[in-house]
Design brief:
With 70 residues, the protein is mainly alpha-helical. It has two helices and no strands. Helix 1 packs antiparallel against helix 2.
């Protein structure tokens, strides 16, 4: 059975994640970051977008961090 996860990413946290993701992905697409470092920045940007959309950050769970009000 699937267990639903409670949201732990708040609105301001989401905004920061989306802005940082846009910056990292943009620097990769623009050719500023290339090679392994470029792909790592692109991957981190994608993870930030996913965690911003789902409002769940797996790294927050073991530490009990919640930036959301719910």
């Amino acid at each position: 059975m699937l267990r639903t996860m409670r949201t732990n990413v708040g609105t301001s946290d989401r905004l920061v994640r989306f802005l940082l993701a846009a910056l990292l992905i943009g620097l990769f697409v623009g050719g500023v970051f290339s090679g392994v470092f470029g792909w790592l920045s692109f991957g981190l940007g994608v993870v930030l977008v996913i965690t911003g959309i789902t409002r769940v950050c797996p790294l927050y769970l073991p530490f009990g961090i919640r930036t959301s009000q719910k």
